[in-house]
Amino acid sequence: MSWEVLTMRSVTSFFNPALARSDLRRHWPIPFLYTAIWLVALPVQLYLRHIAEGASYGTRTVSEVCQGTYSMGVIMAFVFGGVLAMALYSYLMNGRSVGLIHSLPLKRQTLFFTQLLTGFAMLTAGNLLVVLVSLLVCGEPGPLLVWLAVVTLAEIFFLALGTLCAMLTGWLLAVPVLYVGINFLVMAVMQLIHWLAELFIFGYQEDGFGSFTLWCTPVVQLVRRLTDPQGVVAEYVGYPVVSADVSPLENGGWQALGIYAAAAVAILALACMLCIRRRSELSGDVAAFPWMRPVLRYGVGCIGGLALGMILYSVTFGLARSNDIRAYLPGMLLCVVLMTLVCSFGMSMLLGKSLKIFRRTWKGTVLLAALLAAVCVCVRMDVAGVERRVPKADEIESVTAQCRNIQPFTATSGDTETIEAIRAIHRAILEQAEDGDVDLDGTPLIEDGQYIWIRLKYTLTDGSTLERGYNVPVRRASALYTAINRMMSTPLARQELVISGTADADSAPLGGSIYSVDTGDVRNLTAVEAQMLYQAAQQDVAQGRVISDILSDTGYSPLQVDITGNDWDCVLNLDNFTDDAHTLELVNRFLSGGDGESGE
Fold it and tell me: Both 267 and 407 in a single domain?
């Protein structure tokens, strides 16, 4: 008598229709809501524009409406890609369901790709329905097919990223946390670094995020690349109307979509490998793989310790020491160490599903707290020399300066006089800080001087930027006072003191007006009179008839002089002219009844 053991053969197909139908029955509300939102956002908007424009409605209008929804498409892909991935792979988060599914004669690859393709088909079917309805409304397939390509490529990436997050954890609530965290991790870390530097480094100003940070933040980068960074928005009527003359896709949009689509392929390959190696008995755990435990424990401890530590400092020591130019180091160390211990031990309890985790984790947690404390000390001591750095003249492409009543102005590398004057201000501020003459006492006035806000932004030859902002006391006869006045005496600064707005030196003024703030009277200027005033202002600037003392009281002029040209206009700031300025003489003459024609 022979016994034969019968086994269920594993199906080798990468797709199982029965499982796909089950997913459709369970999760159809998600694509239904997705499609409903898009039907309102695209076909309905196309119909309303068709009613509003009538005969002028055409391809251009359809392109404008479609392009205006690209950023919305990224947000929709981000939200619904993550939600759908969480729903499709929710069976992995429950011990009973994962045991049942994995007992089926299906390979892990089959389960993985069936869920993935079903989710992608749900979103794509909704997109196709939106395109068909929109086509019935507008009859312009070209822009709609481009829209379909854009939203589909975005959905591929975010669905892939959501799938990867579902593979990394066995706890359903951890999926959205991981998903959002991975999307914004690099930007959040860089923002923490900026905040820490602003607390400890005198004058440090955040100058935005670099290219690497933006590429590691897919939502932000795609929205930036698929909206207009170069003036494509034609008008704003409650919402931006994008001009179809220049498509944002041509300004790097296709490149970004292609890069993220290629990244999606790599992410899916990694997610599939993790799905195959994933242990079913870890369903319900925060970490689906043992190597994830230290990553989560120390990652949450590090980021949470810094972020919550700085928040705790700001509401405790920060409120009591609001006039300090730097954070109080002992207080910051106490807050950061305390929050690091709380976050690290809290994450360890969550990972271990127990309160008894101290013996196993205290060494690593204490080491992490010590490392973060060392980072704070190094930043406070300015080990990297960030606070003391003044760019060399040959490193500067341009520098923008703003100081009290001087509007922001930019000196390029060719204007060596102004650049050297600005560098002298920067050095004088740092020297004054070394002497301890920077602490704020809470009062706007000081003896024989004033507190003055100074902002400097360098654009360097390597493409990077360096921005600093200082609120410092400026006293007469100090080195800083001399340096600021030297800058104010340069031709470029004098021009900014008395002429605000845009002016075209090659285009003659066409007119203007003199407005009295006190009486409300307006004296319109002819082209000749406007030309005379503009030339007089330029002459006064060249001959130094401009107040160049940062601490002088310029007084108040009730007169506002506007000069307009062809596509430009500017305002003459009469407060900043000296009493012997020819510009003031001309203004008084025009107001007294004289004109530019007679010379009276």
Answer: no
